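Quick question: what would this complex look like in 3D?
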Amino acid sequence: DAKTTQPPSMDCAEGRAANLPCNHSTISGNEYVYWYRQIHSQGPQYIIHGLKNNETNEMASLIITEDRKSSTLILPHATLRDTAVYYCIVTGNQFYFGTGTSLTVIP
Amino acid sequence: ETGVTQTPRHLVMGMTNKKSLKCEQHLGHNAMYWYKQSAKKPLELMFVYNFKEQTENNSVPSRFSPECPNSSHLFLHLHTLQPEDSALYLCASSQDLPRGGFFYGYTFGSGTRLTVV
């Protein structure tokens, strides 16, 4: 199963775009990239997923590099409610959440 | 409301007590999971059920006993727990199991905050 690497923490000013990076250099051709987030003491919540094309939904955008070895989750206008731990996951035989990136949105 | 309901939301129990956590989903999913999340630690997968059959037990101590009577309900029976078992216990469901490739993803409940005293 492909592993992912994320920075442990990031800050973002309220109203600005939050760009959360993820490295997945061992990703296989049929493996998808998923992003979830976990607000304190709640269950993780699905955000977005993609294979190789960039994706956008009402919550975020996902940019996947052409070689698929890394991706970036973009929250276009971060709010205080976006403060959470963000997990980048690559599908395999296990859906491994790892330690994620703790994003703090600052007023 | 995610479609996965966990009860109770909070539970305090003594080390000699027996209690059960309940998880219910009406999403039509076939797989259900128990995860443990201790403070400042990643989610730890405990048990996996697919079509009511246990497919994974990640070396979980026998004081945790899962039960899956049907695809919509999952229980975690607790007996003689230790203070280090205090954690957030999360239930999740998915349409199928992850096998690489496309996966429909998990839907999580809000969790049960367990404190063992």
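Answer marked as accepted. Residues 25 and 80 of chain B are 28 Å apart (CA to CA).
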